[in-house]
Amino acid sequence: MILPAKPHPTGHPKYSETFPGLEESAEVARKLVRTALAAWYLEDLTDTAILVVSELVANAVKHTNSRVIRVVVSRPSERFVRIGVVDRAQVLPELAKPEDDLLTSGRGLLLVDALAERWGADLYRWGKQVWAELMSEPTR
User: Regarding the domain delimited by 14-96+105-135, which CATH topology (the fold level of the hierarchy) does it fall under?
Assistant: First the structure.
């Protein structure tokens, strides 16, 4: 009898999937995040995580011309989950400024900034990854 592998508390496996650079990809990205959090028994982060991935996907779709994006969900430590969206553009995201008109757009990264422990972007030769880290509550 083969037993299923135990979920790893950190590192691998990470969950990642490539999606079309379309708004509709946010829905399947949310499913990927839910799957990863359930595997790691971190369902307490689900509401925040699906909001964060939705905003990161929306930014990649709206502000880049990438035909595809890659969503990566990893666990760099026992208490942190990192959600990243990779695209082909090398333009780094910027937080909206107080003088910006936020009525129609520009609130996505402000929301990510408010919800995440930290966030950032890693620039590569071929594109970038914008990521946010969420922290789970300690288990008792």
Answer: Heat Shock Protein 90 (3.30.565)
